From TrEMBL:
Residues holding [4Fe-4S] cluster: 153, 282, 372
Residues that hold iminosuccinate according to the record: 89, 106, 192-194, 213, 308-310, 325
Ranges annotated as biased composition (Low complexity): 433-444
Organism of derivation: Curtobacterium herbarum
Record-linked InterPro entries: NadA (IPR003473), NadA_sf (IPR036094), Quinolinate_synth_A_type3 (IPR023515)
UniProt keyword Cell cycle present: no
Protein name: Quinolinate synthase
Cofactor binding: number and manner: Binds 1 [4Fe-4S] cluster per subunit.
Co-factor requirement: [4Fe-4S] cluster
PANTHER family assigned: QUINOLINATE SYNTHASE, CHLOROPLASTIC (PTHR30573:SF0), QUINOLINATE SYNTHETASE A (PTHR30573)
Amino acid sequence: MSIATTIELISNGRAAGTTCTPDLAAPTWDFDSVPGYGPGSSMSDVIPTSSPRQGVIPDEYRNAPDDELHERIERAKATLGDRVVVLGHFYQRDEVVRHADFLGDSFQLANAALTKPDAEAIVFCGVHFMAETADILARDDQRVILPNLAAGCSMADMADIDSVEAAWAELTALYGTEPDADGRVPVIPVTYMNSAADLKAFCGRNGGIVCTSSNAATVLEWAFERGQRVLFFPDQHLGRNTAKAMGISTDRMPMWNPRLAGGGNTAAELLEAQVVLWHGFCSVHRRFTVDQIEQARREHPGVTVIVHPECPMAVVDAADVAGSTDLIRKTVAAATEPTTFAIGTEINMVNRLAAEYPQHTIFCLDPVVCPCSTMYRIHPGYLAWVLEALVRGEVLNEIVVPAAVQVDAKVALERMLAARPRPLAGQRDPGPAATTATTTDVRA
Ligand code: SF4
């Protein structure tokens, strides 16, 4: 199978043996049969017992050589034509992305699917919360398929509805529910796009909102116009980095550990809080360090360091640029002179940028090859399996968000779409928050 190919691709010329786990080179189906996120950066994270499991798929896909799988995928796609759209996330492995119609981040892809009105099926080569978002935004008659049900997201799984509702009950008991003199309620829930649909719905029901890494500052501004403080989940780093850039002191950003009473905080700390940060993180972006940045600067004088805001605060502070996957792409694309970029985000995306812009020197800040293990769960065998089933008229691995959850989640998503950055003095209304930057139409 294509694990070796993947390792070769993601290694991109690095010395053999510099991967984060030898399991990356193990036979594909060995790790797929065990519960967990698979080999890669989040393989040690605790997987919730309620997470979907992927059953064993037929031997004809497990035993097929790479070339045959690619041929079968292409044939199935050709047969289905516009009836199917295949979406590939920036962090997805190359041997899957080569079959994608669109390449983008989670929200861009969910929107890209809407540009294909004839598509009866949306095959999302990403992770579970992304497929849920696509289902929320898709037409009722469109079916959303996740090729491997075990492709969750360890960060999204760090906040579940029961824990968030329990935290909300504690916080509202402490803060009360009365607005202040400016009409601002005591607390507003804000969830990152990387969260389960029921958490987006929770925000919709409770006056809250969704954010992406592109528009988190605008969304926090929106929240502070309506609330005295924010409960931000699940990614502490995006919340902290965004709030700090807005001038909020880190002393007023306590962390909420869902396993502890009061989240591990005193009542006084919570009353002083402006942003209560959920104890969640992305295992991929947590790997980046200030030492790696210093090393890159020593070895490549003049290097431009770009990191994703899911990285720890010290890393974001030490970088030249911090921003979403879309901003990372745009920063590289905008460089008119040959430039050296050290990038702190998932390795598949970094290596794809390096291949796309050979005039620049582009490398991953982390010298150890460690892909997003949950994306890694989807490989061509699963894609061939779901596509050939569609040709036969069968829908496998459908992701269905219950109607009531969809309604409330849409409220929170629509608030995000309507949120506008605050105009600077003398500036006209800059329009809605940046949420729908373009995907790459791979077929274009
Ligand atoms: S990179 Fe991190 S946040 Fe993104 S899907 Fe993987 S584990 Fe989740």
